[in-house]
Amino acid sequence: MLDLSDVSIKEYNELCTSLVEEQKLKPTIVQWQCTKECNYHCIHCGSDSGKAAPDELHSREVLPVIDDLANLGCQMFFLTGGEPLLREDVFEILDHAKDAGISQTGFATNGYAVEEYKDEIARIECASIMVSIDGYGKKHDQIRGVPGAYERAVRAIDILKKDIGVPWVGTCTVFREENLPEIPKILTDLLQRNFDYYRLNSVVPEGRARGLSNPPSVIEKALRFALKKRKDEGIPLVMGENLGFLGPLDEEVRGQPFFCGSGIGTLTIMERGEIQGCNASDFVHVNEGNIREKNVKDIWWNGFHQFRTGIWDTLAEQCLECKYAVQCRGGCWKMRITNAQFCYLDIAEKIAEEML
Ligand SMILES: C[S@@+](CC[C@H](N)C(=O)[O-])C[C@H]1O[C@@H](n2cnc3c(N)ncnc32)[C@H](O)[C@@H]1O
Ligand code: SF4
Ligand code: SF4
Fold it and tell me: Which atom of ligand 2 lies closest to the CA of 207?
């Protein structure tokens, strides 16, 4: 990965401009928010899922876009939602991505239908599948609004890892004050099973999670926990990107330096064909174009100004004056546009001083 620690804003802009002009930027990771339909009712659901959105993309619209993305250099095609396993054509589409030359495919799931589709999932040979768990046992069921959801989720992990042998099977917990005490219990259960990573994402206050932002005290507790588990016990726990640049804790709690790839190395297709840097359902102003109206190559090469050299116009004064401006570029832009706190550097520096 490119070391940005000694790069100035001017040098960054020159580099970015030349990569765009020479068409060297690739959407290496593409995420498709493939439906709004969901059989769960999670309290924190940022995509406000439930019923399918009117006029969601049909497979005949998506398949040629996948070909274009493969030509642009996409290496990972990952489905999210809603619940991807509720789309009838999900396996046809993931098959197509492989046939188009995209080497890795995957999806996030609530785990409900994994057992039912076990044979299909085995056949399509995904590289990575993420099963969400937000609490231990009944607490998970309560947060997700479905009795038995926890049992389904852990059974899904066992099927995916032990029975099918998916290379990367992970779990993500969206943490808030309410479920913070659940995290050690979830981890203990996971450690008795086979899994490859455990991800902790702070809640983004969008969709049904509007108004559910984490206070700094919750972030601090989660960071301390993550650091301890990684450093002292070597557990593959990963803190999500939405806490932004964490200075001395950055690599310690993520295993790699912070980098938001939106519009630089990643793009997202929304349910009805809008293209965004990363899925922000509530915010049409971050749409870069719609694949129903424009070719995705055109959108990739001529859009995304706000994530490339134009990013500086979107940042607060505190970021423009910060010595980490280029490494961080204002942290997670979804946190910024949802008016959540987006800089946790001071908390990270305090923890690093005490614990490293
Ligand atoms: C939107 S879901 C879609 C896939 C599937 N239905 C599931 O629950 O895993 C993908 C991931 O985003 C997480 N997520 C949902 N709302 C969120 C929010 N407001 N902030 C952070 N993560 C969120 C979910 O918990 C899940 O781990
Ligand atoms: S987080 Fe996933 S399972 Fe929960 S409501 Fe949203 S899309 Fe459905
Ligand atoms: S002040 Fe801005 S640029 Fe600096 S670390 Fe915080 S979010 Fe990043």
Answer: 6
